[in-house]
Specification:
heterodimer, A: 112 residues, mainly beta, six-stranded mixed sheet, globular, B: 116 residues, four-stranded antiparallel sheet, 0% helix
Chain lengths: 112, 116
Amino acid sequence: DQQVKQNSPSLSVQEGRISILNCDYTNSMFDYFLWYKKYPAEGPTFLISISSIKDKNEDGRFTVFLNKSAKHLSLHIVPSQPGDSAVYFCAASAGGTYKYIFGTGTRLKVLA
Amino acid sequence: GAGVSQSPSNKVTEKGKDVELRCDPISGHTALYWYRQSLGQGLEFLIYFQGNSAPDKSGLPSDRFSAERTGGSVSTLTIQRTQQEDSAVYLCASSPSVGWSRNEQFFGPGTRLTVL
């Protein structure tokens, strides 16, 4: 049972445009969400997080939106840059636990 | 080094052999995690260590898998009698303390295990 789903395995976007990466979850107990970026042959690196008490969190070009009623979150990258090309994972945890459930990732390709 | 390191970076083994994967967390980080990423899958939680507490082993897929953390620092993940389905990238991560556990984890580059 995949509790965190990233239904788009890949996405291509033109440089300068907006990239929108989506993530859906099924467990209503999840209350903390993170996005990680992963380059080939490297471990994932933390990008941005959001708590369920918020519906938006912004950090520079990166914004995460949370829609609790739809159990959906999205990561917006504006403007997209070629260096953003990577695999993006969303992850969720519940009740302050240390266990994170990760999605399968979306490979973003930003075209110059 | 400043980051989490893992060794070896690649390991090819024959079915039935035992393997040991090593993780050196960031100095001072008390929490350590092991994950596995199989082809086309997300990161699968395996085990969690926090300080001197008993580890959470609930993610280990079978009793062929074990892990230890010596002196609260270096960790070793051992897979006995490897099977082809064990082929995956094994990732280690550390974080500063329980209070930080809901925040970022710092990942190592992973060990790619291939079981022939």
